[in-house]
Amino acid sequence: MVHADASAFPSSISKRDAYALLYVQASSLFEEQTNWVSNLSNAASLLWHLYRAQPAPLSAVNWAGFYTLAPAGHLKTRGDQQQEEEEEEEEEGEGQQERPLLVLGPFMGKPACQRIAVGQGVCGTAAAEQRVVRVGDVGAFPGHIACDGGSKSEIVVPVVAGGQEQVVAVMDIDCAEMDGFDEVDEEGLAKFAELIGRSCDWGGRVSPLS
User: Fold this and answer.
1) Which of 5, 26, 42, 148 lies 20 to 30 Å from 171, alpha-carbon distance?
2) pLDDT tens digits for 46-89?
3) pTM score
4) Residues 27, 31: Cα–Cα separation, whole Å
5) Which residue, among 37, 1, 59, has the nearest Cα to 202 in the 3D structure?
6) Which run of H or E residues covers position 85?
7) What are the b/e assignments for 142-151, b being 16+ CB within 10 Å?
8) Closest of 162, 192, 171, 146 to residue 16, by C-alpha
9) Minimal CA–CA distance to 64: which of 4, 22, 1?
């Protein structure tokens, strides 16, 4: 199969059939490829083209991609380091533990938030609770992190490393329309996330969330 052909989703098929085709196309692309960056990149592209071929509201999907788990302390900016030095004396002896972070991974759409703490926002909640979080109105979700003000609804699906029962990433999809996702989306994306989880070598990204 020519790799680009995998993105051909007929506009005439149902949403359920589109997700079934997504699974088949991704399985072919993932064959003999275990690098998580490569597989998540192709997964984001497949999702994007699937939604472009669907009628509203899915045609209004404006972001599709992944955040991967980076254990606390593994990703720091210069500002973080300076702040830590200033607060070091105050925190000494208190035994404070940083929360692990979700770090922006491969995606399709506008530039997005680069880091999200596990437990915060829709993505962080899905990771912390290891469950699909489907939000019909992001404005009504407590603690929602607005990376793009144009997003009105969202679905986030945890990706679990094959056979290890540990969240290593989340699949995040935003829609510019309210109530953009339903049970069919949740079912299709959960199956897709399971395929991704067991198709990738996640290396050191498998670690406890607490």
Assistant:
1) 5
2) 999 999 999 999 999 999 999 999 965 555 544 454 444 444 44
3) 0.87
4) 6
5) 37
6) helix 78-91
7) eebeebbeeb
8) 192
9) 22
